[in-house]
Automatic annotation (TrEMBL), chain A:
Boundaries of every Response regulatory domain copy: 491-606
This protein's GO CC annotations: plasma membrane
Pfam hit, one: HATPase_c
Every Histidine kinase domain range: 234-447
PROSITE patterns named in the record: HIS_KIN (PS50109), RESPONSE_REGULATORY (PS50110)
Main location, first listed in the record: membrane
Organism, as annotated: Xylanimonas oleitrophica
Modified residues (4-aspartylphosphate): D544
GO molecular function: phosphorelay sensor kinase activity
Name the UniProt record assigns to this protein: histidine kinase
Coiled coil location: 158-199
Source lineage: Bacteria, Bacillati, Actinomycetota, Actinomycetes, Micrococcales
UniProt keyword Coiled coil, yes or no: yes
Keywords for the protein's UniProt record, in alphabetical order: Coiled coil, Kinase, Phosphoprotein, Transferase, Two-component regulatory system
Enzyme class: transferase
Automatic annotation (TrEMBL), chain B:
UniProt cross-references to InterPro entries, sorted A to Z: Bact_StressResp_Reg, STAS_dom, STAS_dom_sf
Family annotation (PANTHER family): RSBT ANTAGONIST PROTEIN RSBS, RSBT ANTAGONIST PROTEIN RSBS-RELATED
Organism, scientific name: Xylanimonas oleitrophica
Any one Pfam family match given in the protein's UniProt record, by short name: STAS
Protein name (database record): Anti-anti-sigma factor
Stretches assigned to the STAS domain: 3-114
Domain of life: Bacteria
Length: 616, 134
């Protein structure tokens, strides 16, 4: 505390200098004091810088104490700052390296008392003698705000600024994190959306596939049904030809001289064959109805007459002890297809009669809301509820005690239902087992003519009678007329590969007085015509349409090339063929053994027609 | 905790504005921070504004010189701007000349001094071609 080489003066301040912060405080204080004592700016900076240099040395030397005093020295006032260190402080060296040598260049006088302890005093002359009051106020100012001057405020601001920067960058980081999180969420949502739409698409394609499958199933079912119908139709056609042959041959046999026993057997043969033909015909009918080719011909039907006819045809079939009642018609006329309606009602009545051992079979007709209800009610064995729909299936036979004695094809009811549908109506059954059954055929108020015409037009091609001539020839009236004059004494050539039917035709013609030659192929027929001696040539050729070595129609053309006026009759179990111009006059006869006379009539007509082919 | 001097990045230049009197450890830390920032950002220039400094003693002076040296090694130029007249005089009196450190009066001029460093490679090639043509 005793400043070296100077008078003791007024001590303004004293504080320790140990750290960087203290050095900073020291030069700041030094500057404030210099300013307070009236030194100019440059001197303030010089003095503070010098203090900084010395203070740093003192701190590096283990720390010391700074004392700021104002004193008189050789007549003038000086500012003196003394730094006292307990350890030795370097006092010499280059000014550029700082420390005391640097300070020497900045202040007027540096007094060093090498230690230890080392004392370094920086002396700066003051421009004027400071008053005591001024020194007091300066001391008070230094004491009261040792640390709250503008500089430390700047430091605080600086720190704030840095904090703010930190905060900003942390906010930015946070935003980035939030952004990333949002992006993640977005990705999640997108993924979920994609998954959902994938699932939806999958379900969709599943539904589409299901539809396609259903469609395919439907097509398969339709194809199966079509195949069944085609099978029925085809088989029936194929069956009809031989059965017709059998019936025809049997009837020929019946005409020949037989003893009583033979005649009985032949009549059984005839019955069986006729039953077989009936079955085949029913199958054919059903197949036609199922394929939608049933021809419907609308006309005003005399209802009382129809009922009377049904009564007449059914009465012989009724068992003893069973009453057949047919009620009166509610009106005189109904517009429908007489043939089909009669077929349905006959089937229903026949069916009822078959299964009724006692009681009654009744046919009633009622009009309800314009519809006609034909009800066939019996007191027969009845049908169990679980079998009610089954009876409408083909060949369905419900087990019952009458079955062994009752003959049936199992086609009657299915066919009847088909026909009612064709007529625009319906067929329903109700029954109580043991008490009886009721079948109701319902006709609609009136079948629109357009519908009927459509059905007729679409089924016309399969009617089996393309040529008007043939229709006339086959008709029962024409047949009956021909019977009256069933003689044909000419020469006939019969061409058919079917031996049985050919035999039938041959026998029929012979029976009518004809001389008959035969051929089994087209080639043989052509040879027979070409090679015939004059006077031996056939007056008529009866030709089958379907032959193994050629079509009957072509055969007609070839035969006509040999003899343009040759009379020909075509026959087949199939439909009528399309005829070329040079064969337009050739009649067509169906192979139907029950109507042998139709063939004879056709033969007689073409053979006796004047000119024959010249007319064409 | 010691104070930290903020370092701002403007383009490829780092701007250091010293607003208060620096404590020695703060100065040392600034030196380290700058070296780290130059490496990290690939800055080509360092502008040190010392207009807030009232006192620059030998330590601070050496620190400025060493920042310039470090920057040069890291391929960045250093410009010290805004030195107060009193500070400049004192430094000269002290024998500190800030050798190797470029100076400018203010930040704007300092940025102009640094600008050529920011030329694109095309501009550098063009300038070289022009010089060759002259």
């Amino acid at each position: 505390m005793t400043p070296g080489g100077g008078l003791p003066g007024k001590e303004l301040l004293r504080f320790p200098v140990r750290s960087d912060a203290d050095v900073l405080e020291l030069r700041r204080t030094g500057r404030s004091v210099a300013e307070g004592l009236g030194l100019d700016l440059q001197d303030q900076v010089r003095f503070a810088t010098a203090l900084s240099e010395v203070g740093r040395s003192a701190a590096a030397a283990g720390g010391g104490v700074a004392t700021v005093t104002v004193r008189q020295e050789t007549g003038e006032s000086v500012l003196a700052v003394t730094l006292t260190t307990t350890m030795t402080m370097p006092v010499s060296g280059q000014a550029e390296d700082g420390g005391v040598p640097a300070a020497r260049r900045l202040v007027d006088d540096v007094v060093v008392s090498s230690g230890p302890p080392t004392e370094v005093t920086l002396v700066k002359p003051l421009p004027a003698q400071p008053s005591t009051d001024r020194l007091e106020s300066l001391r008070a100012a230094l004491d009261s705000h040792p640390d709250t001057d503008a500089l430390s405020q700047m430091r605080a601001h600086n720190a704030e600024l840095i904090d703010m920067l930190e905060e900003l960058s942390s906010t930015a980081r946070q935003l980035e994190a939030t952004n990333a999180e949002l992006e993640e969420t977005n990705r999640g949502v997108m993924a979920m959306y994609r998954q959902l739409s994938d699932e939806l698409e999958e379900t969709n394609s599943g539904v589409v596939a299901l539809y396609a499958e259903l469609d395919e199933r439907g097509r398969q079912l339709a194809a199966a049904n079509e195949a069944k119908t085609r099978f029925l139709r085809h088989v029936s056609h194929e069956l009809r030809t031989p059965v017709n042959s059998i019936i025809g041959l049997v009837s020929l046999l019946d005409d020949s001289p037989l003893d009583a026993e033979q005649r009985r057997q032949v009549s059984f043969l005839q019955d069986s064959a006729t039953a077989l033909l009936g079955l085949v015909n029913e199958l054919l009918d059903l197949a036609r109805a199922e394929s939608g080719r049933q021809e419907v011909t609308l006309s005003d039907v005399d209802l009382p007459a129809l009922l009377a006819e049904l009564h007449g045809t059914t009465a012989p079939l009724v068992r003893d002890g069973v009453v057949l009642e047919v009620a009166d018609a509610p009106r005189a006329v109904v517009r429908t297809d007489r043939h089909l309606l009669a077929r349905v009602l006959r089937n229903l009545l026949t069916n009822a009669v078959k299964f009724t051992e006692r009681g009654s079979v009744r046919l009633t007709v009622e009009e309800r809301d314009g519809e006609l209800w034909f009800a066939v009610t019996d007191t027969g064995i009845g049908i169990a509820p679980e079998h009610l729909e089954e009876v409408f299936e083909e060949f369905a036979q419900i087990p019952n005690h009458l079955q062994p004695t009752v003959r049936g094809t199992g086609l009657g009811l299915p066919y009847a239902r088909r026909l009612m549908e064709t007529l625009g109506g319906r067929l329903e059954a109700s029954s109580v087992p043991g008490e009886g059954s009721t079948f109701v055929a319902v006709l609609p108020p009136a079948l629109p003519d357009g519908t009927a015409a459509g059905i007729a037009a679409s089924s016309g091609s399969s009617a089996g009678a393309g040529a008007g001539v043939a229709e006339g020839a086959m008709g029962p009236v024409a047949g009956a007329a021909a019977e009256a004059d069933a003689r044909f004494p000419g020469r006939a050539l019969v061409v058919d590969d079917d031996d049985a039917y050919r035999a039938l035709v041959v026998e029929s013609l012979r029976g009518a007085g004809a001389r008959v030659t035969q051929a089994a192929t087209v080639a043989a027929a052509v040879d027979a015509v070409r090679g015939a001696q004059p006077g031996e040539a056939p007056d008529v050729v009866v030709l089958d349409v379907r032959m193994p070595d050629g079509d009957g129609v072509e055969a007609v053309v070839r035969l006509r090339e040999l003899r343009p006026d040759l009379p020909v009759v075509l026959m087949s179990s199939g439909p009528a063929p399309q005829l070329p111009p040079q064969a337009r006059d050739v009649p067509f006869v169906g192979k139907d053994s029950r109507d042998r006379t139709a063939l004879l009539a056709a033969v007689r007509r073409v053979a006796t027609a004047p000119g024959g082919a010249e007319g064409a | 905790m010691t104070d930290v001097v903020p370092i701002l990045k403007i383009g490829s230049t780092l701007l250091v504005s010293i607003q208060t009197d620096l404590q020695d450890d703060t100065a040392l830390r600034l030196q380290e921070d700058l070296a780290e920032q130059i490496t990290r950002t690939g800055a080509r220039g360092v502008l040190i504004d010392i207009s807030g400094l009232e006192i620059v003693d030998s330590f601070i002076g050496r620190m400025l010189a060493s920042i310039a040296g470090i920057s040069r090694v890291l391929d960045a130029a250093t410009v010290v701007v805004g030195m107060r007249p009193a500070v400049a005089i004192t430094m000269v009196e002290l024998g500190l000349s800030l050798g190797g450190v470029r100076t400018a009066l203010d930040v704007e001029r300092g940025l102009r001094v640094l600008a050529p460093v920011e030329q694109s490679p095309e501009e550098v090639l063009l300038a070289a071609a022009q010089r060759a043509g002259e």
